[in-house]
Every structure is written in C-alpha cells, then in structure tokens.
Amino acid sequence: MLIPKVGWIRLRLSRPVPAAKSYRVTRDRAGRWHVAFAVVPPAIPAPGNGQTVGIDRGVAVSAALSTGELLHVPGPTAREQMSLRRLERKLARAKRGSNRRSRARRAIARLKARETDRRKDWAEKASTGIARRFDLIMFEDLHIKNMTRSAKGTQQNPGRNVGQKAGLNRGILRSGWGLLMRRLEQKASGRVEKINPAFTSQRCSACGQVDPKSRESQAVFRCTACGYACHADVNAAKNIAAGHAVTARGGDGNTRPVNREPHLVLQSAQ
Ligand SMILES: [Zn+2]
Q: Would residue 140 show up in a list of annotated catalytic residues for this protein?
C-alpha cells in the first residue's frame, strides 16, 4: 500500500479491502497501527414484516427494546478492572522515564484497546440484528434527550447512584449507545425515525396516563392510574415504538402540550 509522504508499507489485512474513497492511518494507545477505510456499512434490506421497534437509551441498562429485551454494552470484566487498578498503582510508583513506567503504560493501553474493540463488536452485531428483524426502527433524538435527562437525575429521582454512574460507567454507556445508533442509521438507512423524547419516561404505555409519579424508581415503572408495571426503560421504549411523542421532524416546540415535563421547565429556567 502506498501512503503519501511515507512510502510503501506492508500490512496485514484483517478483512478484505472494501471499495472506499478514503482511509485513515492511526496508531492506537496500545501502539498498534491501523488503516481504516471510510466505508458506510451496506444497508440491510428490511425484513418486510411490518414490525416496528422502539429503542430507549436506558438509565438502568444500556438500551431497552419495546419487545422487552434489554441490551447491555460490554464493559470491563471484574478481572480487567482488577488488573487495571494494579497497573495504575504500578504506574504511579514507577519513576518517570523508566522502562517499568512505559511497560505499565503500554499494558494499560492494551487493556483499554481490548475493551474498546469489544464494544465496537457489540454495536456491530446488535445493530445488524435489529436492522434485520424490524422494518421500522424508532429512537429518541439525542440532542433533545440530552437536555431533558441529565446525569444528575430527574426531578422525581434526584441523583440516586450519581457517584456510581459517573465516570467510567457513563462513558461506556454513552459511547456504546452512540455507536449503536450510528450503525442503525447506516444499516437501516431510511427506516429510522427519531422522535422527541418528551414524556416517554412518564407515560404509561398501557393506558396513556402521564404522571411523573409512575416512575417509581430508575428501573421500575408503575402506572398510578391503571397499575401497569414494567421495566421503566422498556415502558419508555414501548412509547417510542408507538410514536407517542411529537416527531422531531414535525415538532417545533410550539406544538408541545401545555403540561410540559417538570424538569424541562427547570432546565430552561437555569
Ligand atoms: Zn396505565
């Protein structure tokens, strides 16, 4: 392969070279060189079964499907976390510029690279599976969602587990979710609809009642009107699948219901 300003390089093909217009040469934290071709994964044909799925970015899990399935982005294993802590202690003790130090740093990078690979692999498989099974895929518009659901918790559920979720966990969730959505938009091109997330977490998917009190906890939804109980993220995913929110495309803010979500009001008052 001829790389401008570098010359000819030898490379091992990890997969057949796709027809790509551009590529990027990078070196990851583990010191591995990569040649990445900019290719959009080919669209997967719709199954033609008329099925719709709603996907909610979970608080309790990574993502919940309206079918009731819960998806978990793989994080580091307990063993990996242990060796990471051990290596970080080693790194802290090692003298600057020493061999020990660079060895420890490389080992940490290798661990993290393996973790990232696993997450990417998960997003590829999960997105392919969903694109194959459903004709229409609906999820919430992330830009709107980020405004309505902060990491600090919602008003009715203020900051429980904040410390626990902060940092590592949240990063894993976010990166896994982002990649999954990106791949879905590519693989199910033209079959993805993004909706406004208003009320999806407070609305009962069985009877339609909207009440913040129905969101019993981060994981449990129990309708104050009809008693319907469900995993909170799955309940939200069902609302998303049913399209019970203003579609992001059509919604312009003026068409919102009068009784806005309470924390939305709080946000705009800040
Ligand atoms: Zn209900």
A: yes
